[in-house]
Write a structure and sequence with these properties.
Elements (H helix, E strand, L loop, with lengths): L1 E12 L3 H12 L4 E4 L9 H5 L3 E3 L4 H5 L6 H12 L6 H25 L24 E3 L3 H14 L4 H4 E4 L2 E9 L2 E9 L4 E12 L8 H6 L12 E2 L9 H8 L4 E2 L4 E9 L9 E5 L5 E3 L17 H9 L6 E6 H7 L1 E2 L6 H4 L3 H10 L2 H10 L3 E4 L2 H12 L6 H16 L8 H10 L2 H4 L16 E13 L2 E2 L6 E3 L5 E7 L20 H17 L7
Parallel strand pairs: 1-2, 1-8, 2-5, 8-20, 9-17
Antiparallel strand pairs: 3-4, 6-7, 7-8, 10-18, 11-12, 11-17, 12-15, 13-14, 14-17, 16-17, 19-20
Helix pairs in contact: 1-6, 1-19, 4-5, 5-19
The structure holds flavin-adenine dinucleotide.
């Protein structure tokens, strides 16, 4: 016995942000949709639901009010510098330009109309280390994080005037294969994971919106970027287990072009989730800028010290150059209280729940409860009153004697001595970068003013063991500018479409090998709106 669903214009596979927006736009265009989601009803929203909700936009009124005179030309130049496109990256480049030039009107303004609100100050991430990254702040934070983005759009979908007649959502429905007739994809086969019953569905269009491969550490390791050497022994999972590439493989069976799969966007400062729901679930820390970043031996990584806000990829690259590919950050309680944060909705409750007083308190005084929680419950934190004690505890935690206490002491004291000599004599790249970040008001408030590590008024000392944590897949299923899936000969595959992270956020990799951040949620919304218009035989962008 198998269930059949046969009267839709489009089947959408995946109920993440890309799937939800595709469905919503198809209803707006008076089309009938069936959306299959592998997870539970509560999983609708996918990664966006747990995301921080930062979105990359160019030349918005929020930027202008902050004195930022941005332009698509400047932003596209920044993008290309970070992407390192090569001459074969035809569709990725087209998509990048498409996004940069149209994100304000077709993502930012559209989301506002749907009821999503943005924080009035733009954050400045990925500034670039040796070459400029984001020339201006462009990271627009959703008031309520990605959790709110999903809540608003899912509500609009469910309450859409056409939802009763045109929308079917089936959760715990895992799509496993495509149905093909006369060289056209005409439907899907799958299994209802609740009842173990097979199902089949047919429609004029099948949209793959099933996310990337970051949820399968096996696949992350298999696709590891070769110039980084062997993958680290431990990579934590910063995605969800259903982002496993099952449908990339299925599409590949029909000659779909899967590209840039080694261009991933993992993070350098991953720790074990204290209350994991999935195996090896990792949290990505926003690494405190005033902490010292050390290798597995307790030696400061250099000569260019590691500091966040400039170049995420550089951090990962430097850690992967070490013999053992994990790292330590050493700081003290005062720094932690002011700067410690974790990316995502779960650990930013005040913003997520739109509590203005709680949010202002966190902004002004830091998140002490979060630090307490991690110190008490996360296995990767150790606390001590002296450098010697800290070194011993670090060795105890990693189960070896790799941390050389003399080296650790040298790293900490030479940095502290530099601060002790006074601002006129600061000669340390990390201190210069701290001075630079503190010049932007959006960062000043959460960055300590040249804080020494050993300081009896700031203790105790803290060491955090940090692993590489998987997150976004920059590559994916290649699509043309209408989100039609391309094959290896450059033709489109009739009936098959892709959107969101599954499509490398557009074209099978619109980021090339590096991202300016906030471009992931933005890319999902943009590609999803476009795919709906293509299926309805319309054009989103006039
Ligand atoms: C903690 C965190 C913070 C983040 N912060 C930001 C941020 O600030 N800014 C930003 O731009 N990006 C951020 N991101 C990234 C962003 O959230 C994702 O790139 C984006 O949400 C991906 O959306 P998607 O719909 O393409 O894929 P997903 O969210 O992965 O959704 C895909 C859905 O498809 C379902 N599915 C998979 N396979 C099948 C199948 N075979 N059958 C049926 N269903 C299937 C899955 O269960 C899932 O629900 C963050 C991510 C995380 C985890």
């Amino acid at each position: 016995m198998s269930n059949s669903f046969n009267s839709a214009d489009a089947i959408i596979i995946g109920g993440g942000i890309a799937g939800i927006v595709s469905a919503l736009e198809l209803l707006n265009l008076d089309k009938k949709v069936i959306l299959f989601e592998r997870g539970l009803e509560s999983d609708l929203g996918g990664l966006a639901k747990v995301s921080f909700g930062g979105m990359f936009f160019v030349d918005t009124p929020i930027q202008r009010r902050g004195g930022i005179k941005d332009s698509p030309k400047l932003a596209y130049d920044d993008w290309c510098r970070v992407a390192h496109f090569n001459e074969n990256d035809h569709y990725p480049k087209l998509w990048a330009k498409h996004y940069v030039y149209h994100c304000k009107n077709y993502v930012f303004e559209w989301l506002k109309k749907e009821g999503v609100k943005f924080f009035p100050v733009v954050h400045w991430v990925e500034r670039g280390l040796f070459r400029p990254g984001n020339s201006y702040p462009r990271f627009h934070l959703i008031w309520g994080t990605g959790h709110e983005l999903v809540r608003v759009l899912l509500k609009n979908l469910r309450e859409h005037p056409k939802a009763g007649s045109n929308l079917t959502i089936k959760c715990q429905h895992k799509v496993e294969e495509f149905i093909v007739q006369d060289n056209r994809i005409v439907g899907v086969n799958g299994v209802d994971t609740n009842t173990d019953q097979a199902f089949r569905a047919e429609a004029k269009a099948v949209v793959i919106a099933s996310g990337g491969i970051g949820g399968s550490i096996k696949r992350v390791k298999e696709n590891w970027y070769k110039p980084w050497g062997d993958p680290p022994e431990t990579i934590l999972n910063g995605s969800h287990p259903f982002a496993d590439g099952l449908l990339h493989d299925e599409a590949e069976k029909y000659n779909a072009k899967i590209t840039h799969m080694d261009k991933m966007w993992p993070y350098a400062a991953g720790v074990h989730h204290p209350r994991p729901k999935n195996k090896d679930e990792g949290l990505s820390l926003v690494p405190p800028k005033s902490a010292l970043w050390l290798n597995y031996k307790g030696e400061r990584i250099g000569p260019m010290p590691l500091i966040t806000a400039y170049d995420t990829r550089f951090l990962v690259e430097q850690i992967c150059k070490q013999e053992k590919k994990y790292s330590w950050q050493v700081l003290n309680r005062k720094i932690a209280d002011k700067e410690f944060a974790i990316s995502g909705a779960e650990f930013n409750q005040a913003i997520r729940d739109k509590k203005i007083v709680g949010f202002l308190k966190t902004l002004l005084f830091g998140n002490k409860e979060l630090v307490d929680d991690m110190l008490a419950n996360c296995v990767d934190f150790v606390v001590a009153d002296s450098i010697e004690e800290l070194g011993h505890k670090m060795n105890e935690l990693s189960g070896d004697n790799d941390v050389d206490i003399a080296i650790l002491k040298e790293a900490i004291t030479s940095y502290d001595d530099n601060i002790e000599r006074g601002p006129k004599f600061y000669n340390d790249e990390q201190l210069r970068r701290i001075a630079h970040t503190r010049r932007y008001s959006g960062d000043k408030i959460r960055t300590s003013k040249f804080q020494k590590i050993v300081d009896e008024k700031a203790g105790p000392l803290i060491a955090i063991r940090e692993f590489i944590v998987s997150r976004k897949t920059l590559g994916g299923i290649q699509t043309d500018l209408q989100c039609k899936v391309m094959d290896n000969e450059g033709n489109t595959i009739p009936g098959l479409y892709s959107t969101g992270e599954a499509a490398g956020f557009g074209g099978g990799g619109m980021h090339g090998r590096g991202a300016l951040e906030g471009t992931f949620l933005g890319g999902c919304v943009f590609t999803a709106r476009i795919v709906a218009h293509t299926i309805a035989d319309k054009s989103l962008i006039e």
